[in-house]
Design a protein that fits this description.
The protein is of the alpha+beta class and about 100 residues long. The protein has helices spanning about 10-15, 20-35, 60-75, 85-95, and strands spanning about 5-10, 40-45, 50-55, 75-85. The protein has a single domain, classed as Alpha-Beta Plaits, CATH 3.30.70.920. Helices cover about 45% and strands about 30% of the residues.
Length: about 100
């Protein structure tokens, strides 16, 4: 399954509701799992972002739908990167013309 790294920033609304964030996060994870996704890791971080999530999704479309759903709740803003495993990276590099 495709893998993604998502960088999260709390919105002002999200920061004001920070004590409710664990429950909101669990709901989002359950919704994502219901459409075939899998959260591999979720981390509170310090620096330019507030959280980092690593997940798998059956497709880019499912990932995008889930992320748009999060955005519509207004608690977080996201930046998502599609990730490739080491083996996928090696396969991509092998296809570079010489």
């Amino acid at each position: 399954m495709p893998k993604y790294v998502t960088l999260f920033n709390f919105t002002e609304k999200g920061a004001q509701a920070i004590k409710d964030m664990p429950e909101a996060t669990e709901r989002a994870i359950k919704n994502f799992e219901a459409v075939g996704g899998k959260v591999l890791g979720l981390y509170l971080v310090m620096g330019a972002y507030d959280m980092v999530g690593i997940f798998e999704s059956p497709s880019d479309e499912v990932a995008s739908t889930s992320l748009l759903s999060l955005a519509s709740a207004g608690l977080v803003r996201t930046t998502t990167l599609k990730a490739f495993t080491k083996d996928e990276f090696y396969g991509i590099v092998k296809n570079i013309p010489t």
